[in-house]
Amino acid sequence: MIQSPSARVPSLWNGEKAPTDPVDLLVYASNLLGQDPRITNFGGGNTSSKIKQTDPLTGEEVSVLWVKASGGDLGSAKTSNFASLYQDKVTGLESRYRATGMQEDEVVPLYMHSVFNNNPAAPSIDTPLHSFVPYAAVSHMHSDAVIAIAASENAEELTKEVYGGQMGWLPWKRPGFDLGLMLQDLIRENPGINSAMMGSHGFICWADTWEECYELTLRLINQAVDFIESRAQTHGFGDVVRERYPNPREELVRLLPTLRGKVAFNGQRLIARVDQSDAVLDFLSRDKMDALTRLGTSCPDHFLRTKIRPMVLPAGSDEAALDAALAEFRQGYGEYYDRCRHEDSPAMRNPNPSVVLIPGVGMISFNKNAKEARVTGEFYRNAIEVMRGAETISRYTALPEQEAFNIEYWLLEEAKLRRQPPEKEMARKIALVIGAGPGIGLSVCERLLDQDACVVVADVKPELVQQAQENLQVKYGKDNVAGVTLDITNRESVRKAIEEVVLTYGGLDVVVNLAAVFFPPDTEGRLDDRLWSKTYDINLVGSYIVADEAYRVMAEQGLPGSIVLTSSANAVVAKKGSVAYDTSKAATSHLVRELAVEYSPLVRVNAVAPATVVSGSQMFPRDRVIASLAKYKIDYNESMTDEELRDRLANFYAQRTLLKQPVTPAKVADGAYLLASDRLSQTTGQVLAVDAGLTDAFLR
Questions:
Q1: What does the alpha-carbon distance between residue 361 and residue 277 come to, in Å, rounded to a whole number?
Q2: Which of 135, 156, 415, 570 is deepest in the core (most CB within 10 A)?
Q3: Which residues of 343-374 are buried (b: 16+ CB within 10 A; e: fewer)?
């Protein structure tokens, strides 16, 4: 038996955990529904409750519509993600709408005049779908299995076959006030129904209580699942006509940087997400794939992110073939825009594909950040499952092209885009930070993530990578942080690590290498030859290998990049006891200048040169701190904590500077961030001192 588009959905309702407060109960039910992708896609669907509450102005009891607000996701929604409106004011708009001939989009601003108790959450365009249903609990979901029926050629007949008289039928209509009125009329004319199928869109159902509505939602989805499964005697996508590519990883590593560079638009980079799931690879191997991808998607939520259709690229395509495929896609998208545009349509957006399908290899999805890139790919996965189900029971039909355009370039959606806050300065950038331990490395990662970069933390020690990755993901989200282990003295290790960066996010824009080592001399002040070599291998040769491998990817992208290495104040201060370290850092400073010449004009190469950083530095374990305190004849005792000992040493170093301040990881991170960002976009070949004014390190 062929697998259906989705498995049956079990009930997770727990009467003991379900809140008694009606608003909290709405949130509880919404979270249960939204957390299961078999029920609805990320950000898709909405829920509502009609609740009797006391009007804070009149003290009278009124009916309040609580409905999921514009944007957000049901699975993680909180009370603040729901709008509250006077139910009678929303339904009262019907008479004005019918009497005055208002345009549908003109109704949306009026919802704000219906807000109950100054709730700041913005009502969504689906508000009428909920308000005009005369039941307390309403659920509108985007289940792949149900949409497969809604997007079938004979959807209305199939709806009757699957659901009998319990589900009504509404032809496709863009979400909004008209659709809400159509639903109201349907319920009035068919008092026995408990739900409605909306052509190409999904379904909506209702009940007197939320427990009943939740169970009804699942029952309707499972009926669709069972129906598709009963028809699945042959594969919906036909026969296998393409084999898996022999080296998909190599193909992606080869293709992704070049592709990412070419889909950037007006200087705006995109983040990539790779999907090599069995569902995607199976779809790409079947004989109906070409025809179905040309049709486009059906559910409005899908193509808002995925565009009306994806680009299909044969595996093994060289750059000329890639350029030709992109040119053909851009031309087709431009023609689609010109055919469908209205006088007041927004300007054409990025004409490059959001989804690229590579048969035998997988799917690449692009968007402005890692989360949106993931969701874009998930939405096309939803589209695949919808097509699979529809082709199993009937024939898949996409939305008419004009309707698709009207959604993609909807003025209300454009207004929503314009209301979004400006992007932060490292948004759309991919950064590799080498040296993941507590201290400077963690501080650099936080500076980059605070400004919305995607960050891959790296270190030679797996436990440090894991710790840093987990800590950063808690604060910044799993999509935005990845980790990789590498040995910078081993080119193959570095290459594999950078390949992982490419496979995770699509390319590389920024590298900050903080990895360094200092070996204290023996009692006679000498360092053996092995440690000399190791010092240079890590501090100098490793820096070169990292920069060289990073530049290769940046050059393939063709996008400006930034490489930040780490030198030291010791590079220009001659002193006793650290000959190997100091000379390796001096060589690193000159390496910066050489690489700036080699990698120009595309990639900037600079370095940050801190004075001694004691706090949070792995280069200052307790025994080295004690040795330094003894060397400088600074009082201490063995009972002091590690932090107390470090503070004492750091304060000693601070007194040797003009500013009399210890150099901290956060301040070094500021310097590294400044060089990594575009704030110094015309600075290359420079070494930036962060030493609180160490006069011995002044240029001379």
A1: 10
A2: 570
A3: eebbeeebbbbbbbbbbbbbbbbbbbbbbbbb
How far does CA 280 lie from the centroid of its chain? 20
Distance CA 267, CA 418 (A): 18
pLDDT tens per residue across span 376-435: 999 999 999 999 999 999 999 998 899 999 988 988 777 777 777 899 999 999 999 999
Total residues found in the chain within this entry: 700
The region of weakest confidence among 169-173, 196-200, 459-463, 657-661 is: 657-661
What's the rounded Cα separation, in Å, for the pair 70 and 119? Answer: 13
Query: H helices within 140-176, ranges in order?
Result: 144-150, 155-163
Predicted TM-score of the model (pTM): 0.92
Q: What are the residues facing 530 on neighbouring strands? A: none
Q: Quote the tokens at residue 181.
A: 């009125």
As a whole number of angstroms, the distance between CA 284 and CA 361 comes to 9
Residue 414 DSSP one-character state: H
For residue 602, pLDDT beyond 50:
yes
Q: Say what the pLDDT of residue 648 is.
A: 83
Q: Does 521 score more than 50 pLDDT?
A: yes
Residue 29 burial class via C-beta count within 10 angstroms: exposed 0-12, middle 13-18, buried 19 and up: buried
Q: Which amino acid is at 274?
A: V
Contact 90, 133 (CB under 8 A): no
* Assigned token pair, 365: 């999805």
Tokens, residue 371: 């989360």
